Amino acid sequence: MTSPLPTPVRPADPIDALLSAHGLRRTSGARLVLGWLLAHPDTSYTHAQLQAALISDSTEALDRVTLYRLIDRLTQVGLLLCRVDASRVRRYQAMPASVHAIPHFECQSCHRDSPLEGAFSGALKTSASDLEHAAQSALEALKALGYRGMSMDFAVRGVCADCAAVAPDARGMSA
Q1: Exposed/middle/buried for 56, CB within 10 Å: 0-12, 13-18, 19+?
Q2: Which one of 3, 11, 141, 152 is at 20 to 30 Å from 26 when CA atoms are compared?
Q3: Strand extents, DSSP E, the chain
């Protein structure tokens, strides 16, 4: 008599694992939103842009209210990063695992969001490290005073080199 072969263990879906680890239900909508944003980590999206992208990429449609609620839940548990741009529009992107208070550059044209850490050598790396240390010190001081649920954002906003190369500047000349 032979013993039955063990059933192979399926590796856990990383999106399901993230949702579960953060206390969220693993609904198809939550999986869709988080999965899509994780697949596009370098760009931040408005609610409308995200809804349009999800509609074009998926057979499952999320109504705008459901999407708002999902975005809100994912942001509250720290899986999404919500930033308000210079036009006071909320933009969302998957929260990079390494983000604490690392400065980033947000292109006002293509809305790509790039961490400045590692992007430049020398002084900027030192400055990024100093900013990270200052941010952590400030957060610890506020925590000691009883503040909770804090985050800090250092943003440099402008037009990235790629967009500047194709778009004329305000004087009508190429940048």
Answers
A1: exposed
A2: 152
A3: 80-84, 90-94, 104-107, 113-115, 155-158
